[in-house]
Amino acid sequence: MNPVFPLLALRAFTEVGRHGSIKRAAAALGVTSGAVSQQIRLLEERVGLPLFVRGRQRMALTEAGARVHPGLLTAFDQIESSLRILEAARGRKTLTISTVPAFAASWLVPRLGRFTQGHPDIEVRVEAAAGLVDLHRDRVDIALRHGLGSYPGLRSAPLMAPALLPVGSPALLAAGPPILAPADCLAYPLLQDGDRADWGLWLAAHGVAEDPRAERGTALEDDYLLIRAAAAGQGLALVPQEYAREEIAAGRLALALDKPWPARFAYYVVMLPESEQRPEVAAFVAWLHDEARGAASAQAPLQ
After folding, report:
1. Are residues 261 and 202 in contact, defined by beta-carbon separation less than 8 angstroms?
2. Is the dihedral of CA 157, 269, 159, 241 positive or negative?
3. Pairwise CA distance, residues 139 & 132, whole Å
4. Among residues 231, 257, 232, which one has the least CA distance to residue 243?
5. Which portions of the chain are predicted below pLDDT 50?
């Protein structure tokens, strides 16, 4: 057997097995799909066994591939973790934070100056994207995720559970029928969350009988998009109270009805178990919780 260790081929095999797709593995590795295919072919030729069953939609591991994939996956994740430790040892403390655009723009970034003032030796980089990152693969130290808190293999701690409020553009509300009770919102176009669930839950929480209109309307995956659509007069939106406060103060939105309702989802601080041992990570997490507590205690009634 060739004594040269086929590291590139094994890396390609690991990523294709992780993603079930040559295209997605290539994107994760930053190379072309052809390069990944070639490495898989070279590895299969070397071991003399097929490692994948090629399907129309997915690359499935063969029995032989499935036996070795977990060990290789762990090994490459450990290599990545070791490299991060070496980079941290250079003395330059850096943190990469991943979160959704709405949370970054409306909550995190406006407060970030307070952290950098208190910790001038720590450089912070914020990545705002709607897609979830893979903390085992991507160079992200802390993810601020919006969900139910179940993140297997990761450390997670609740940061805040926003309450949702119905809002709309001042022009839309001035031109439409008065909203005196939650059921009156159904007379307006409703802007939906990605699951089309929030309006139905909000109305039910306030005693409104089930109505098919609660699930109709344009659906948007991100709170930032909901806010922009509502500000453009496209309908009423249920948005987190913290975001609504700033948009109302700026005159872009108006409160349709002062009836907050706790959202099903909360924001969580999520990281790899080993990351929380780094002093800069611990400092940022402690600061996040201090800011969340301060924001909760400082909330004033909406006008």
Report:
1. yes
2. negative
3. 13
4. 231
5. 300-301, 303
Q: Are residues 292 and 269 in contact, defined by beta-carbon separation less than 8 angstroms?
A: no
pLDDT score for 300: 46
pTM greater than 0.70 (yes/no): no
CB neighbour class for 111 (10 Å; exposed up to 12, middle 13-18, buried from 19): middle
Phi and psi dihedrals of 196, rounded to 5? Answer: 55, 40
148: which residues sit within 8 A by CB, 6+ positions away?
Answer: 264, 265, 266
**124 strand-pairing partners:** 95
The set of residues, in sequence order, having a beta carbon less than 8 Å from that of 98 and lying 6+ positions away, is 126, 127, 128, 129, 133, 138, 140, 142, 143, 144
Report the distance separating Cα 29 and Cα 10, nearest Å.
Answer: 12
Q: Which helix (H) or strand (E) holds 249?
A: helix 241-249
Q: How far apart are CA 105 and CA 92, in angstroms?
A: 26
> What tokens appear for 152 in the block?
């297997």
Beta carbons of 248 and 257 less than 8 angstroms apart: no
